[in-house]
Amino acid sequence: MKYRYTVAAGAIDTKGRYTKRPVVEVELSRGGHARTFLALIDSGADQITMPAAIADALGIDRAACPARSLMGITMERLDGFVADLDLRIRNQADVITAPVVFIDTDVPVLLGQEAFFDRFRIKFEKDHDTFETTPSRKS
Amino acid sequence: MPEADSIIDLSDVLDSSHENKWVAIAPDYRAVLAAADTLSELMRKIGDRKAIFHRVLPHDVSFAPATLR
Predict the structure, then answer these.
(1) Relative to the CA of A127, which of A53, A63, A66, A115 has its CA 20 to 30 Å away?
(2) Is A14 a member of any domain?
(3) How far is A87 from A51, CA to CA, in rounded Å?
(4) How many domains, chain B?
(5) Structural domain tally of chain A?
(6) Are the C-beta atoms of A82 and A66 separated by less than 8 Å?
(7) In this structure, what CATH number is given to the domain that contains residue A41?
(8) pLDDT tens string for chain B (69 positions)?
(9) A36 in reach of chain B (CB within 8 A)
């Protein structure tokens, strides 16, 4: 399925043009709770990463989850935890169950390498303002 | 080749008042249903209504979230 890059509100690039990002709607669910978020496809992220507030909203008990630390571009270590969520990308029939690293920041939902790029072939065509996600046959 | 979705221009519904906030956008992207400083507060405001949740970044920064090993 092809998607258009999304124009980020107010953000301007170094040339003064609107910034566009590879963003897609994703429905997150667990245990009968479901919410839809805009998620940034981030090939540089090792895992799918989300704010811990989403885990709280979906009824995940963080005390029962394995700990995992994460380091971002500022090179500061952030403590987090891991739990599985069900994800369904807009206009994709398949639901995938994937491990998610939750951290206590307001980071946007990031769709990273493990479980997302493993399960979808992602083709970025920024020169056409489009990107394509295709379910991978590899399990 | 499948058709691409139409382009979503968040600047049509979001402005500077939404920077650094969580927003709940209507499923047709034509309106902001609610905004809040925290996601939990926003979810309380929205209740069971259908919405698309989004964290609005500051407008005057570049974003580079990639994690480094």
Answers:
(1) A115
(2) no
(3) 15
(4) 1
(5) 1
(6) yes
(7) 2.40.70.10
(8) 445 677 888 888 998 899 999 999 999 999 999 999 999 999 999 999 999 999 998 888 888 876 444
(9) yes
